[in-house]
Amino acid sequence: MKQLEDSFFSIFIIGLGLIGGSLGLSLKGKWLRYGYDIDRDVVREALEVGAIDKSLSIEEGLKSDIVVISIPVQFIPYFIRENRDKFYKDSILMDTGSTKRVVVDEMRKVDSFFIGGHPIAGKEKGGIKNIDSHLFDGKIFVLTEENNLTEEKKRIVLKLVRDIGSFPVFISADDHDYILGLTSHLPYVVSLSLFYYLMKKEKDKDNIFKFAGSGLRDTTRISSGDPVMSYGMIKTNLDHVKRFISEYIDTLKEVIDVIEKGKFKELAEKVKERRDRIW
Amino acid sequence: MKQLEDSFFSIFIIGLGLIGGSLGLSLKGKWLRYGYDIDRDVVREALEVGAIDKSLSIEEGLKSDIVVISIPVQFIPYFIRENRDKFYKDSILMDTGSTKRVVVDEMRKVDSFFIGGHPIAGKEKGGIKNIDSHLFDGKIFVLTEENNLTEEKKRIVLKLVRDIGSFPVFISADDHDYILGLTSHLPYVVSLSLFYYLMKKEKDKDNIFKFAGSGLRDTTRISSGDPVMSYGMIKTNLDHVKRFISEYIDTLKEVIDVIEKGKFKELAEKVKERRDRIW
């Protein structure tokens, strides 16, 4: 569709939480930014802090060059299904969900251009109150290889990704869900389960958290993530997550065995060496 | 013993790594700070950065008001045993090890005043190069209830703890090892095993770490800790750690069950609520 002003593309952001709001803020002055949120207070705040230029109804917003759905991933397929007939043939449909299989499967049923997206960026404190124009700086923005973009449409998507300071990386939806299952969903369950276990132990000795240092704080940080969003990413990738948890349990047992056999130092050095090369 | 200068107590720090070196640095201008390290380069650097006033041999250093052993905990009992006859009757023997049972059991065989100590402070990067005069600011400094301090000797220990900016907390060695097993040693094994598991998966898909976000970075931060030190804390508390790992595995299975039963949001909210009250 036509742009409303010459050199500006228009974006319609559905869901103005941490990701949607930060996306809007990062594009300030570069794109025409329309927004929608089910919560009117969030829309008001997004306008006040300049995360969007204007709020639109879903019907109006869908006319934008690109429509980005930034709601918890478990709701994205329903949202697409419910609005299937309202999307525009010439628009690009994208999302920012933490899993990609369930999203892309639904997107291909819509008569629009589509591509799945996932910026690898976040904070444990969500919502419009925590948006950050630098949230995506230097981060990877995953784009699904399964898409129907023309070269021209692809250029618009890539411009969006670069305008927020991220690096586009194309990958299949299945590889995405496998890899993020390992690097994001599994760590979340591990972290949450650790804190939950300590909460149960707290019933025996009520002051255990008094002795908690920064190690425990960091190891359990992601368990303070938004429950609805976190649940969605696990629920929509549960087969992978279950398999990884089961293999992780085997690894815990293996590590205990390594300790008992007096071979732990070598293992710890190997882990430290690899980890220190990454961060 | 007599102080070498009027209003100054003297401390002899054995092991000038992150904890020993930072301890010295924090006491600059407040205590006479003597130091020893098995590595002559470390001693030289400690002197250069002002972590200690003077290096002494073990024989000379043991005449100080308080002797603090800051070496990896698995070596502390051996060190005490080996030097048992050299300690001074009037000195206070303390340590900074991550477990307390094995240390206190050995300390009570020495003909000195003794108390176990453990500052709940650290960084994943150890060694004299990473020492920090603010490392102990506002942190808890655990002191064992099992000690033979007179009121006068206790005052010296408490002055030391307060002079580095920490809060003294008295607890039994057994409670310490139980609680720190939960809040420190278990998280370390969980974190290290998670990263180790991902390293194994990396063999199937070699670019998984490219997609790693800050969640994984924080969850695995403590697995970059010094391998010798980390091994020591687990090895000297292995009965607790094994039991906690086993219970933690049950919790992981419980969490999967909660997800499958659709009750996960409530659990995640409970965890987030409790965690956010702590940090």
Describe this structure in words.
Chain A has eleven helices and eight strands. With 279 residues, chain A is α/β, with parallel strands linked by helices. The first copy, chain A, has two domains: 10-171, 3-Layer(aba) Sandwich (Rossmann fold), CATH 3.40.50.720; 177-278, 6-phosphogluconate dehydrogenase C-terminal like domain (6-phosphogluconate dehydrogenase C-terminal fold). Chain A has an eight-stranded mixed sheet with strand order 3-2-1-4-5-6-7-8, with helices on both faces. In chain A, α2 (40-48) links the parallel β2 and β3 (54-55). In chain A, α4 runs parallel beside α5 (101-107) and α7 (173-201) crosses α10 (238-260). The relative contact order of chain A is 0.11. The mean pLDDT of chain A is 95. Chains A and B meet through α7, α8, α9, α10 and α11 of A and α7, α8, α9, α10 and α11 of B.
Notable characteristics:
alpha/beta; 8-stranded mixed β-sheet; homodimer; 279 residues; 2 domains; Rossmann fold; globular; 6-phosphogluconate dehydrogenase C-terminal fold; 11 helices
Write the layout of secondary structure elements.
Two copies of one chain form a homodimer.
Chain A: E1 10-14, H1 18-26, E2 32-36, H2 40-48, E3 54-55, H3 58-61, E4 66-69, H4 76-82, E5 92-95, H5 101-107, E6 113-119, E7 140-147, H6 151-163, E8 167-171, H7 173-201, H8 214-219, H9 227-235, H10 238-260, H11 264-278
Parallel strand pairs in A: 1-2, 1-4, 2-3, 4-5, 5-6, 7-8
Antiparallel strand pairs in A: 6-7
Helix pairs in contact in A: 4-5, 7-10
